[in-house]
Design brief:
Elements (H helix, E strand, L loop, with lengths): L4 H24 L6 H12 L6 H8 L3 H13 L3 E6 L2 E9 L3 H19 L5 H21 L1
Antiparallel strand pairs: 1-2
Amino acid sequence: MPLTDQHRFGMQLAHMSRGWRAELDRRLAGLGLSQARWLVLLHLARFGEPPTQRELAQSVGVEGPTLARLLDSLEAQGLVERQAVVEDRRAKKIMLCPSARPLIEQIETIANALRVELFMGVDEEELSTAMRVHSRILANLEKKS
């Protein structure tokens, strides 16, 4: 059975996603953070209010126990701290420590530079079309869950 353009598109998308993340991980290696840990820091930095551990796990797309181990190591590095939630003793809010801010700025600077490189030669119209296609596919995926 020959490959269809839809099949090629799916393979290309997966390959691009893996490659983009691998290149970013390679560029961030000097900061001493694993991919999973810098991803948690970036997600944390994008919340307006400190999220609960459950909210952060949903945002990052990992299971609770996996996030708990990542938070343990980030806490040991002095980058995050857990704070009890008054209304729910079992819940914990995750706070960024001040020492994490310069690190997050470095991560974002490196990530932005890579993004600029990767989008070279892609014009606004092409990007808009690609985003519409991806949005439609994501919406179809949402219907499945």
